[in-house]
Amino acid sequence: METIAVFGSKLGFHLSLPSRNNLFLPPIFKFHGFPLVAFPDKPRQHVCLKTTTSASPTSDGQLSNRKFKKLPPSEWTDHFHSVPLDVSEMDALKREIETLKPKVKNMFMSSQGTERILMIYLLVSLGLAYHFEDEIYDTLKESFTKMEEMMDNEEDLYIVSIHFWVFRTYGHHISSDVFTRFKESNGDFKETLKEDPRGILSL
């Protein structure tokens, strides 16, 4: 591909015209000379320079200046190691889980109020909540109607934050106004919360 560049009296001014070979590709210039500079007391001159491209077109017609570097072979092999699976051990773990589920369920159902909400948070954090989905949904549905009673005079930021997180996680709308009790009249959090890292982290 060839292009024609026309220069004026200043080096910063030029006009490039793509050749007829390919009108859609931007020209890449390789200058063979510089324009003549016209002085104020002499008439201005324009010089036409012929430029050529230094890159060769690729298979799709576009220019490429990519340089490939030969990389060393990988230190990792292509072999996939198999992991032995002891079916009897997995069966033993399954039986142990089934044995513990009724015990955990009894602990959950015997808890009341805030203690049960905290246990839901614990089960979710441990990834065990799916074992007790029905019990959790029934508990939250009933507890949501008693939310004002549960949150009344509660000044523990950790407890309020856990309640807020659990109910919001399971789709119950609880207003963020429950945290207003921990703010000053100017909207800032109370200075006493600096001594409550557990509450701040839960928030």
TrEMBL record:
GO biological process: sesquiterpene biosynthetic process
Entry coiled-coil feature ranges: none
InterPro entries: Isoprenoid_synthase_dom_sf (IPR008949), Terpene_synth_N (IPR001906), Terpene_synth_N_sf (IPR036965), Terpenoid_cyclase/PrenylTrfase (IPR008930)
Transmembrane segments: none
Terpene synthase N-terminal domain ranges (all copies): 75-203
GO molecular function terms listed in the Swiss-Prot or TrEMBL record: cyclase activity; terpene synthase activity
Name the record gives this protein: Terpene synthase N-terminal domain-containing protein
